[in-house]
Design brief:
It comes from Flavobacterium silvisoli. This is Glyoxalase. There is one protein chain. The protein is an all-alpha fold. The protein has one domain. Helices cover about 70% and strands about 0% of the residues. The chain has seven helices and no strands. Helix 4 runs antiparallel to helix 7. The termini are far apart.
């Protein structure tokens, strides 16, 4: 198992964001674990979102930019199955130690994870079009 954890950490690279002695445990986990995973999985998140939008009758693609932003927020907050799928994409790149840390405070870390993912998708709204990632 150590070999897997070492490969995962090597793949993800360094922490993103500032970590110091004043950082909370959640903030440290966010910058050390969540941000690098969200960055490395970015293209997959875009492809997964596009696939989701297509399966939802392509409604998303006809919306104005403002309504697309609201749609992203709404769907990730309200569609439990979709949100759980997104969480799985992140959790799959945890080390065993990170997973053990995560389960101690999963509710708050899930909120951070989903909020960061929502912001990431909203900031790349121009990429959320079918055919760009197929």
């Amino acid at each position: 198992m150590e070999a897997r954890d070492n490969h995962v950490l090597e793949l993800r690279g360094e922490a993103l964001g500032i970590i110091n002695h004043q950082s909370s445990l959640e903030e440290t986990f966010q910058n050390k674990t969540l941000r690098p995973i969200l960055k490395i999985q970015n293209d997959l998140f875009i492809a997964v979102f596009i696939n989701y939008a297509i399966k939802q009758k392509n409604v998303f693609f006809g919306l104005t930019p403002e309504k697309k932003i609201a749609y992203i927020e709404n769907v990730i907050q309200r569609d439990i199955k979709f949100r759980n799928s997104l969480k799985g994409i992140v959790i799959g790149l945890f080390t065993v130690d990170e997973y053990n840390e995560y389960i101690q405070n999963s509710s708050n870390l899930n909120k951070r994870m989903m909020n960061m993912l929502i912001e990431r998708l909203k900031s790349q709204i121009q990429l959320l079009e079918p055919n760009l990632y197929s």
